[in-house]
Fold this protein.
Amino acid sequence: MRVVKVPPNHTSARCNICGAIHRGKDVHIWRKQTDSFKCMNCNHSENADANASKNLAIKGIFKIIKSEKEEWFNKFDNLITK
Ligand SMILES: [Zn+2]
């Protein structure tokens, strides 16, 4: 199978430091500026593209994201009160 083009949403939504995966609906919090990422879990902030590339460099990243995202989504849902 050919290499599938990377869907940008989750790799750019994952913190490469602590592994937190952010929800698309919270994008206004973790990506206030289009070019900068800010982790809601550990407060790590970095250029958004740099953060995404570091995630992409991780072997099996899609598997990791797939298996861990629900846990993070729930965590952030509990964290954010509206
Ligand atoms: Zn983080």
In short: Residues 8-79 form one domain. The pocket of zinc ion is lined by residues 15, 17-18, 20, 39, 41-42, 44 (CB under 6 Å). The chain has one domain: 8-79. The beta strands are 36-38, 45-47.
